[in-house]
Amino acid sequence: MHDLIVIGGGPAGYYAAEKAGKAGLSTLLVEKGHVGGVCLNEGCVPSKTMLYSSGLFAAAASSAKFGVTAAGVSFDLATVMARKQKIVETLRSGIAFTLKKCGVETCAGSAVIKGKAGDVFRVAVTEKEFEAKRLLVCTGSEALRPNLPGMDREFVMTSREILSVASIPPALAIIGAGAIGLEFATFFVEAGSRVTVIEMLPQIGGQLDKDIGLALKREMEKKGITFYLQSKVTAIGDHSVAFETEGKTQMVPADVVLLSVGRKPVVAGFGLETLGVAVEKGAIKTDGSGRTNLEGVWAAGDVNGVSMLAHTAYREAQVCVEDMLGKNSSVNYGAIPSVIYTHPEAAAVGLTKEEALAKGIDAAEVKLPNTFSGRYLAETDGERGMTKAVIDAKSRKLLGVHMVGDHCSEMIFGAAVMIDQEMTVEDISGLVVPHPTVSEMIKDTILQFK
Length: 450
Description:
450 residues, alpha/beta, FAD/NAD(P)-binding domain, 3 domains, seven-stranded mixed β-sheet, globular
């Protein structure tokens, strides 16, 4: 008998298990693959490791404008991939060590919920059966695969398979211009591929602020990436992709095709239906504390479909465990930042002006080019970054910050805190930001509001 069984060892699952174990709950974590989930094994970490290498290569190749000439620079994919794998394995070991230190029992295999008897949940893993007073579902998500002619061709990959390519494809076609697609577009174009991105929406970056999305697109086009927006893929041919755009059918060559059209929560295949847990729009329905409609069952991470980001999963996991322990805790989804790790990066937190107006808020926006920052000018050449702030005109509270440019991923946290604490323009004016840093852009932009 355990106090808690956690199904899934991704960011939400292993973090919740650690928190529960530290709090003294007898905790079992079940994972069918490697701990760390998609983020560590086939997402966030490996892709950022690869992007760091391609970024170094691109910087070395263009360093002459900074007075540094690098001769004979080359890109060794095998070394990049070996380093990536080493980092992944190091982090896996670290998670396993921490779980053990926190007293968490782990079980490798596919969990199947067998039902509930009284107040006890039964979960089978291969030939073993476990019981617990509480259940936390953290089964994550999986890549969507659209039903297109030619989808079964061996050169058609998702973000999982493309992390193990043996060579840089001369021509890469990416279907989807969300965060994952844009990040792989950056890596492969910097590594030497001819990259084409095909997207159904009129802009890149999904829900990015329109100005930020446009600025990011322009910077990526400078690298040689070709975009076809408002375009619908119709078929995958023999090393080619056919699509409709502006009423015409076009075709682009592709040695490799990357499918990057989104992800969906994993809600089937592990017996969830035996409990009667509510599933809405393909995701487990939860409240702000991670509770499902069934007492004793919580869900966290991508499986609830609310904010499919690893750092959101960490916070949701923390809130779920705190709720189990009787603490009043909830997730403030309005203050969760998002980042696209392209070169340059894009980052955002809070509302766009359009979203604020749709909520009936009298919102205004202010923006500045990042060249307003001396540090930014010193470390870039020709890059046109931007920072935008959205402010409630009546209360003068900060509602959103949207950025494109170097260092965005490391700065957006400050804006998230400002929004979480409901800071006003006057509150922010009293903050001291180190100079010279690009992070000054956040404060300087906000103070443009009069």
